[in-house]
Structure formats: C-alpha cells, structure tokens
Amino acid sequence: MQISSNSSKFKNGEHNNEDGSSLLKSEERYKNLVANIPGAVYRCTCEYTDAGELTRTMAFLSEAVQEISGYPSSDFINDRVRSFSSIIHPQDRKNVDATVKKSVATRTSYILEYRIVRADGEISWVYEKGKAVCCEAEEARGKQEEQGEIEGFLSAVVSPVSPIANSVCRVVYLDGVILDITERKRAEENLRNTQDFLNAVLQNLPISVFIKDAVEQKFIYWNTASEELFGYSRDEVILNNAAGFLDSEQANYLQAQDLEVFATRKGVDLPEQTLELPRLGKRILHTKKVPLFDDSGAPKYILGIAEDITESKNTETELSRLAIVAQKTQNGVIITDAQGCIEWVNEGFTRISGYVLAEMQGKKPGDVLQGPETDPLTIAQLRSALAAGVPFNQEIYNYKKNGKGYWVALSIAPIYQENGELEGFIAVQTDITDRKQAEETLRERENYYRCIVETASEGVWMFDSESITTFANSRMGEMLGYTVEEMLGRSLFEFIDSDSRKIAETYVKRRRQGISERHDFKFTRKDGSHLWAIVSATPMFDAEGEFSGVLRMITDISDRKQAEAELRQTLKELEFEKFALDQSAIVSNTDEFGAITYVNDQFCEQFKYSREELIGKTHRLVNSGYHSADFFKKLWSTIRQGKVWRGEMKNQAKDGTLFWLDTTIVPFLNTNGQPHQYVAIRKDITKRKHAEEAVRLSESQLRAKNQELAKALRDVHKTQSMMVQNEKMVSLGQLVAGVAHEINNPVSFIYGNVMHADDYFKDLLKLLQLYQKEYPHPTPAIKQEIDDVDLNFLLKDLPMLLSSMKMGAERIRQIVLSLKNFSRLDEAEQKQVDIHEGIESTLLILQHRLKETAGRPKILLLKEFGNLPRVQCYAGQLNQVFMNIIGNAIDALEEAMETGQWAEGEQAPIPYCPSPTLRICTEVKYEQDTLMQADSAVSDASVRHPSHIVIRIADNGPGIPIDVHERLFDPFFTTKEPGKGTGLGLSISYQIVVEKHGGQLKCHSAPGQGTEFAIEIPVGKIVS
Fold it and tell me: Half-sphere exposure of 555 toward its Cβ, with a 13 Å CA cutoff?
C-alpha cells in the first residue's frame, strides 16, 4: 500500500539510525491500520481566506478514496490536480462548507452526508465524519519534534480524544473518514418508493381501510375512502378514537367489539352494521376487523375494512316494494317461461280476465284468452315476436272467463339472463275497452261535426303536404274575399305578401316537424287589403306516420289589432305626459289613508327631505299649522267622494322655511269606484303670495307713501304675469288628472261588467241546458234557428270571448302598475327593494317582444329565481340595466332566428336548446365566517352570510366574438346597424353596476356558445 503525504519529512542530523528504524516500524503499523479501516481516512489543514471563507487542503488521504471517487488519492494531496471540494456536488457544497466551518469554530465533531461527482460522471453518496484537532502552540510543536507528523496523526486517528481546547488553543488540522453510502441511499429510496406505492394503493381502494392501536384504540391510519364513508377527514380522525366523532353509545359499542376481537385473537365479519353518523346520517356498513400482534404475541393494532352497503340494502327494499306494486297495479301482469307458459299473474290480470293464477299456471295465454273475433294477423305478429325474442306492443281482442270479449293494450318484453340466454317474457295488459267504444262513438259523430265545420263562424282551411288548398269552408272564403272554388287548388303563399312569406315558410317547416302552434298572422285579401287573424295550425299525418297536410283554424282579429295599436299610442302619450309633469311640477302619491308612496325630485328639493324620510309618512310632516282642521276636513271629504280638489296650501320645509303651493289633488278609483290612491300636483306660488301681500301692504300705506306707488304698480304687473303662468300650470294639472281619470274609469267599467256578463251567460246556459233536457225535441222552427245561429259554436266561443275581455282589462291594469314600478328612473336616493319586482316589471314591458309574431316564433322565457333578500340600491337605475341587457338578449335571439346560428355544446349557458330561449337566474353569494369553540382549537361549522346577489341573464343566440368582447363596455361602441343602437346601453349599465353600486358586471360568451351577463350587487343592510 502506497501512502501519499507531504508530512513525512525528517530533519537531517536530528535523529540517529535507531530512531529512523523505530519510525519505519510505526509507519508500517499505520499502513496496516489504515488499509483495514472501511472508507478513506484523511487529514487536512484548514485556513481562512481574506474573505473569511474556510478552505481545506488534503495533507493525507488514503487510497480507498479512488474506489469511492474514481480519482487517485495523489490528485487531492495539496490540491495537486484538484481539490476535494471540487468533486462535491454543487448543490451540497455550501452545506458541507458551513458544517465544517461551524465545527472548527466550536471544536466539535461533524457528520455529513452529501453527493460527489465521480470521475466517470456518476453521482455517489458519501458519509463523512471528522473533528477539528487543536492544541497549544508550544505543545503542538514539541509533539511534532518528538513523534513526527505521521505517528502523531496515527495517534489522533486511533484515539478520539482531543487535547482540551481553551482560549490559547488553535486548530491544527481536521481528521476524518469518508464512507461510500450510495447503496444504502438507493435502498432507502426503494423503501420510500415501496411505502409510497402501498400507501397509494390503500388510499385509492374503493373501500374504507383504517388502523387503530391496541392500547387506546386511537386511529393511526385513515384512507380516502374512509373520509368519504364516515364524513371526517384524516386530520380530524388521526390520534383520536371513535368517541371523538360518534355518540357515546356507539363509541362504547365499537370499543367493546374491538376488545372482543383482541380477546378471541380472531377476525370478525359483520355483514350488516348500522351506524348513525353525525354528518352523513344513518348508514349500513359491511365491516371486517382483524387483530395484529407483535413478535411477542401482544396485541399491537387492529385493522378494519368497511364498505357502505346502504344503497344495496335500499335497493333490496325498493325491489320488495316494486313486487307489491306489480301485484296491486290496476294493469294485468303476466310472467311466462321461455316457451311462453304462464308462471305468475297478478291480481290486476284476475280482475280483468276473471282467471286466477291456479287456472292459468302452465298454460299459454293465447290458448285461454283468444277467441273467434281475435284478429288472426295480430296473433301471427304476436307469435312471431315471441319466437324471435323481441318486444311486442299491440292492441288485441281477448275473452274473459265468462265469455265476454274485451280490448287490451298488450306490451310484451323478453327477459334475458346475464349470459344472454332467454329466460322468459313479461306482459302488461291494460283494459282499453272503454276507449275502443269511445272511438266507435267518435266515428259515428264525424259526419255530424263535418256539418258543423261547414257552418262555423271561424275559417277552416286545409292543405296537403305541399301547402296546396284542399278544403276551405264558406267563412274562410268570406274572410279573404274569394269563393271556395277560387281557393281550392291554390297555394298558401298566394294569399301572403312578400313581407310575410319568409316567416310563413318557417311555420310550414315546423308543421312538417309535427309542431302544432297558435299565432297571429297577416294574410292578403283578394282586394289587396290585409286580414289579421289568429291561426291555430295542426299538422296531419297518415296511417304510416308520414306528413300529409295541415289543418288551420282562422279567427279574424283585424279589429283587435287596430284597438291594440290605438292603446299603445295612448300609453305612449301618457308616458310623455307623466314625464312632462314630473319635470314641471311638484308631484306626490299617497295611498287611501294618506301615507306617501311616491315623491318626485322637485318635491324633495322643495321640502328639503329625502325620499326615505317621506315614504310611509303623511303630509302632517310638512304641515305648517297655518290651516284649520275644518280646512283639511273639507279637503278629505272632497277627494274621498272621487272628486278633484284644488286650492292653495301653506307648507313648511324640514329647515323651517314656509312657502305657498298651488295644489291639485286627483283621486284614482278602483274597480268598485272607490279612491285607492291620490296624486297631488303642486306649484310653488310663494313669490306670488308675497307679491299679493306686498300689494295689500302697499294699499294700507298708499296715503302716507305716494312715492312708492310706481314701485307698487310694477309689482302688480309682475304678480299678474306670474298668475297667468300659474293658471297655465293649473290647466296642465287638470288635463293630466282628467286623462288619468278617463282611462281608469273605462277600464274599471269594462273589467267590472265583464264579470257580470260572465255570470249572466252562465245563468242563460244553465237555463238553456235545462230547457234542452225538459224539451229534447224542439219544433222545426227552433231547430232551424239553432242551426242558423250555430248554437253549439256560440256556447263554446262566448266563454272564451268573455275570458279574452277579462284578460285584456287585467293586462291594461298590469301595464299601468308595471309603468309605475319601472318609472323609478328619477329616484336619486338608494332604497331597499325587491330585485324580482324590477325584473318582472322589465319583462312585462318587453313582453310584446317575447311573444310569437308574424315575423318570428315565440321566445321561451326561463325564470330560475332564488330566495333573495331586499337590497339597498338605486332601483330605477337597476331597472335601466335590466332593460338594456334583456333588450340586447332579445336582439341577439332575433338575429339568431334570421341566421339560424344557435348556441351549441355543453359550454353554452343554455346548451342543446333548438328554440330561441332567454333564461334569467337569481342567486345569493355567501361569505364564510369561521367560529372558534371556546374550549377547542377545532373550528365550528361555517356560518353563511349573504354578501352579494347575482342576476344572470343568458340567451342561446350566436354569441359574441372575442374582438367585440374586449370592447363590450366602451361608450359608443355598437355592432348593430346604423339607427338601431347608440352604443351607450352597456356602457351606462357598467357605470350603474360597478361605479354606483360597487358591484360587478361580467359577460361570458364565445361564438356559437350563447351569451350570459352576470350582475353582482352587494347586499348591504338587509331588511327581514
């Protein structure tokens, strides 16, 4: 063995031959010792650089280092080729240097495990243990002279005892050993991988696996399936026993069960164990427990495996119930074997056929139930289906036990085993004898109804599959100005102008798809005028299910269309007048008891109160005390009689300011003619009253102050001008009050009298039915008159006519109420409101755009409203947001109807919906507040508080391109055609939601995926 060292130098002339011989022997012993030490032995010096870093230089290194690193030891001595630090892995070098530096500073041993880069490029792990050796300077020098460096190093390696360090000690060198631990590291890594694999297997098993210790029965392992089965996480269960999450009775039962397992030293299998879990309720488990013992045979663990069988037990119960249902159902049920022989029949079969199970068992149903009038073709089809083992559904004529025939709807299905082999058949028969008799009666009356059609007051129009007229009654020809002969053989499209042709083609396609519809449509008469009608279209199919034509019932509604147009114009004019009134006068509304329900901005400005301070209060709040009680008594007496009151009142503002108002109070009457609310229209006449007071004062002082006469005259002229203007405003108030009164009274008159007319008609109908019962054979003259007036149709149509009139009057009332609710645009203060009311009002105003028209089909409206709290917000401004977004959604759906591009796929807000659909959802978002128990560090269940409300408005239109999406809320940006949009709707909506309410307005859309706008509004203060 070669020893590489630079410390085996001897001073010439200082030792004799005997000392040299002794040293050689010591060195030989040292070589043998080092050769038998596992690993590489080293000695190195250490020095600090100017930067304060500690460097190690190998003074001695045994050749075992070559086996470890692949480099010979001579390469590292005095850093001849490379330093030892250079082969330490770069990621470990800093830690090695720091540990050695600390050891030198504290004069303590150091132990390291780190990686080195071998000469062949491989990475190896090494273990290094060493210690800083230090001594006093003089002692170290004496020992070096007496022993020589090699023998001194040997004594240091052999003996772990170092000289005691004190304040005068210094580090002389570092001694240590380096061992290759690569194989050990690989084994540890393999062990970790194996443990991870086994743990992953247990964690992913579909059944619960848990382990408890034998002493305290605390859980030490809890897999993922256990968390799902018991409802507790691993962190909640580990190091706790069952008492931590089960009630004491169940916990004690499980503990006794575990002790019994240890006592018997055998595993137990509990096929059905019921536990009441606090978080998941009652569960039924199949549990197995196995005791585990240590080498001495003492109990150490208990291994548990549990499987949730709740659903399977419930399925068993459900199957039992189904068996009872099959037995008790009104339909007849038959079960046969594969050859068709009866094995079981239920009570329903016995009730229908008269045969009991004992009479039918082992027989084939056809041998017992079929007879001479049973259709042979149906029997052949039945036998063919049974032979092929396929389902059979048909109507068949059978015979009861008493010989009486009856009709049944028979449905037979084969029953197959798991291996695919036919096991038998189950047949369900439903008695349809009454239906068959009704069909026969219906055929007998077909001719009778054909006569009715010819004399009907509605148009009856039939077409073949190519939309060619095949039948039209005389009323249909009369409505269009043609004779029946002129209409036959002509296409539907010859009676339609070019504007309506496209929508008519759409309707024809929908009829071919089997869709029945009722819609308004515009036809062209022979003279070129237009006929508006309600069309009830029903597709017809032949016996093979092929489309054969369309039956259309036509009702003339031209007069109604004209009335609707006039009503829309009237409502529009009323809206303009209301706006003008709000801008020019002080307006307030009160209920029948005088409580304020509405004030405009000018009212708040005049009286110095906010809306919140006024709503719900009476006008006593602004009473100045100037007028007597008799004054107000006469006022209330007038308006309670439904009359308009006009006068001048002196009021007081919140800051004490007194002023005069010219006041007009208009009562609004309900359907009973009684006032239910009052509208007060006021004009500030304080200046005029002051002028009048000045005139009176001037008259009293005229004799003494003639010099003020000219000024008084000028004041009089000025006052007169103001009075003229005031009279104009009074006239305007009267006009508005008159218009409101005139609209309310006719609507109330119509609505109230329709109900009486309905009652009168019912009485007449009852009398007519009684007459027909008492005199079933009228005279020829009466019979002729019945045919002339088409009495049956009249009796059928008149209730629908009255219902339509009531619906129209109710619709007008809803529109007026909706306009009042929606006209909150001038409210400047926040209020706590019901968001659903604003949405419903907006939808009511836009209802005409959702209905089916001559130009397009109906837009389906889906409302999914959550339970929302009242929200502090600017209600009128939010109504404007709803109007803008819902209006845009309808525009998008109308575009989709023209282009045929609908949202598709699961990513769409309304997936797989082929018709135009608008969906409005509302929900509540919650914030999570975790409460801490006073005696525990475990958090209690989270308490949910509403933080925001969310309104989602979605459509299944063509969606919004990405480049448009980025500019969606920019002012004046629009994709609509010129004249159809200003580009301000979404920009204003964004400002209202985000800036005014501190909420969020988001759009989720992509081409072909539809569009959804999400509005989030903070809840704020909540009112119960």
Answer: 13
Is the pLDDT reported for residue 905 higher than 70? no
Q: Of 49-63, 208-222, 383-397, 436-450, which range is least confident?
A: 436-450
pTM of this prediction? 0.31
Sheet with 596-599: list strands edge to edge.
596-599, 586-591, 675-684, 658-669, 645-652
Under 8 Å between Cβ of 1018 and 969: no
Instruction: Say if residues 300 and 341 touch (Cβ distance below 8 Å).
Output: no
Interatomic CA distance for residues 988 and 949, integer angstroms: 20
Q: Rounded to an integer, what distance in angstroms lies between the CA atom of residue 668 and that of residue 741?
A: 7
User: pLDDT value at position 5?
Assistant: 43
Q: Tens digit of pLDDT for each residue in 506-562?
A: 999 999 998 998 888 989 999 988 889 889 999 999 888 899 999 998 888 887 877
Burial class (CB in 10 A: 0-12, 13-18, 19+), 342: buried
What is the dihedral angle through the alpha carbons of 76, 82, 84, 85, rounded to the nearest 10 degrees? 160
**Tokens 């003074």 label which residue?**
59
Distance CA 144, CA 150 (A): 9
Summarised one tens digit per residue, pLDDT across range 735-786 is 434 444 456 667 777 777 877 887 888 888 888 888 888 888 888 888 888 8
- Contact in structure between 750 and 577 (CB atoms under 8 Å): no
Residues in the chain: 1024
Residues 6+ apart with CB under 8 A from 361: 342, 343, 344
Whole-angstrom Cα distance, residue 968 to residue 974? 8
Distances, alpha carbon 441 to alpha carbons 221, 436, 438, 445, 451, in Å: 76, 9, 5, 6, 17
Examine the pLDDT at 9 and tell me if it is beyond 60.
no
> What's 560-620 look like in SS3?
HHHHHHHHHHHHHHHHHHHHHHHHHCEEEEEECCCCEEEECHHHHHHHCCCHHHHCCCCHH
Helix, strand, coil shares, percent, the chain, to 5: 45, 25, 30
Can you give the pLDDT at residue 818? Answer: 55
Torsion of CA 835, 838, 844, 846, to 10 degrees: -110
